[in-house]
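Lab meeting, action items carried over

1. Structure of the two-component assembly. Owner: GW. Status: complete.
Input record:
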Amino acid sequence: MKFTEEHEWLRPEGDEIVVGITEHAAEQLGDIVFVELPEAGTEVSKDDECVVIESVKAASDILAPLDGEITEVNEALVNDPGKVGEDPLGDGWFFKIKPADPSQMDDYMTEAEYQDMIS
Amino acid sequence: MSDLISLPLNDLHVELGAKMVPFAGYSMPVQYAAGVMKEHLHTRAAAGLFDVSHMGQVLLKGDPRAVALAFEALMPVDVLGLPEGRQRYGLLTNDQGGIRDDLMFANRGDHLYVVVNAACKADDIAHMGAGMPGVEVIEVTDRALLALQGPGAEAALAALNPAVTEMRFMDVRDVELCGATCWVSRSGYTGEDGFEISVPEEAAEDLARALLAQDGVLPIGLGARDSLRLEAGLCLYGHDIDMDTSPVEAALTWAIQKVRRTGGDRAGGFPGADRILRELAEGPARKRVGLAPQGRAPMREGVALFADDAAADQIGTITSGAFGPTVQAPVSMGYVPIDMAAPGTIISAELRGKRAPVTVATLPFTPANFKR
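Predicted assembly:
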């Protein structure tokens, strides 16, 4: 599992990468009240805005961490956005992406490096 | 940040796990461990204790009739007719008919007790001093201000002094609490029954702890205070009302009693009377309304409003918006042209470059629970 400076986690699952936000990020955002997801099948480039999350405090964007195709999104979040805060590493995942260039994963932090960054 | 002012309950907030943020020059609790959503819901279900000590507390002293008439020269509001022991909402207006601040004032017999917004406090005190010759304008700097709000507020406060059960909405009286003489009003800014308690600062922590020890009372931060007042359809100064919005545009005409309107015994004679009386007679060009986004995305302050999905010209702006934890949907307020202000009218808002439908809604979003 890898981590971005924008507090996303990236978990390889077969030839796809599952993307969500870290517990640290979920805690900072506060209660999450709205999630807007991309459509499955969307081609994205690294750093494209692809998810909008609204907490009780503010709106935030989640950027695509990799070039590739969004293959599946977590539709359950539309009606139950609170899952992001309750289980950010599990049921609160946002989308799966099939990377165009899997070596882009190498640019991201390990869990130890991420823990260092937030501590 | 070093010049942020800490208030008497600062240490208690930190002990209770508050996240402290700068607000109007003060370090204030925005939320506690429970978080904004739970704090909001708890206040509507039980009782919440808010520290609002940053707000300005001001005494107006002098001959009571002269003080009332002098205050009426600054506000389109009936001050003279307010009975002793009663509180009322008021608005300081400017010469253009805009709003300098909104406030609560109470007739305390030999003086008026006024509570103003923290961000406007210094300006208000200067304005009142300059605009009311012969009236002593005294800022109270040795008292904290607590708000206890929610259906459980009466029982919690009555446990400390049962006399408060005799008070009804907008009554004000002295009440002994934790050995201190407190100035208590049955009012608040959440749409719930409750009390606001001005307490000598040396007794503030004892009183706050005694209230938090009652069944069902939790500390609530400014985050939930904002979503509670928004669901209750109440204005936040500097956002929903400001120097440019008139009380008529802001749908605050209920705060302008008949006696100050055209034909009344003390009609006019307040700053901006020309515009305000004209708008009362002819109707304003735009009006503050409730706005219910049809989707789930909150639409916050600054979101542009349009007549429909295709219209090019902006017709208004959202002035407050959030997710409403009680209504379980996004809720907003904003200004729209008067011909689009009827509840049920569907207009369009532009959020992140996309238009989405918004329905003009009746305020409040949640029914008020006052003890009339």
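2. GW to write a short summary for the group page. Key points so far: The mean pLDDT of chain B is 97. Chain B touches chain A at residues 31, 35-38, 223, 227, 296-298, 300, 322-323, 325, 330, 352 (CB under 8 Å).
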